[in-house]
Amino acid sequence: MINTKNPILCSDCFRDFGLRELAKKIGTVGSFVCPNCNSKTGSALDKEGVEELCYNYFVRGSYFKTEYGGSPVLMLGDGNFESDYSFHKSLGHDIRLIRETSGLSPTAYAPALWRVGITDWMERLTSRNWKKRDKAVDELISRCKIKVINSGVQFFRIRTNVVDDIEEKSFDAPESQKYTGGRFNVKGGVVFYASLDLETCIHECRVNMEDELYVAVLEPCRSLHLLDLNHAKETANEETPFEDLSLAIKQVLLAGGHSYAITRRISEMAKLRGLDGIIYPSYFNSVRTKPYLNIALFGQVIKNKIVRVKSIDRILLNQVKYKFEYGPCFE
Q1: CA 260 to CA 131: how far, in whole Å?
Q2: pTM
Q3: 103 and 78 in contact (C-beta within 8 Å)?
Q4: Which of 266, 255, 256 is nearest to 232 (CA)?
């Protein structure tokens, strides 16, 4: 709780919209007069409050993703030092105000290389030498646990804007599939994608309000043996993040389409080992409150009676909610 007896600023002092809105959330409303702008209506910020404001806006708000990983590019420094970055002109007044009242100033931050995906594992997994890359993938698969999903576990698959009558077979993997179209697609085969949580399934399908949605609730007809990319066995050699396999897997799965060459090769080699598929964290977990899981199964699993359809329902979307943070704009 911000101490309104010792405020140095209030939310009304800031001209930038994002800083002002964030200051309203962090500060405290009370009976006081701001010593800086004489406002009686703003949310009060003492020195600790200003520091919290700066950390959230300049440090957390300057996070940038790299190919594999990411990091803030700013940190809080002594107000005597000018920032190495040029900010949008709307921030000029507020940065000077923060520096003069709290002694803080945003300055450049050089992250540890592992945070931006420069590790021993990523060097091997992205290698253009296919033998080196496949050796790394083979070791990765050997280190991951095998997850067994038995009959009774339910998962979800969505179809959108269906023209013909809804049939159970319409929820199966297609007869043919573009190799480059999916994260775990395999050459010469098809992959069936589903989620263990309905909301995750909706996210993964990138649906919009105009779509007509149908969901199938499914369950295995037999035990499924899946490569579990959520759990990799540790070794004595993993003394730093540069050797950490779990970190490398996480960075690959949180990356965009450029990572598919790695994940598709993991999928192909898992299939060669006789596994039924892969269980892996949702790409959207980084913006959700807890981890959710997806599965990728090899082949037309409904047609081959590996998976059964329990029910089919229509879905109507009636609410979407976003939580977000503010950060600085650079010139």
Answers
A1: 18
A2: 0.88
A3: yes
A4: 266
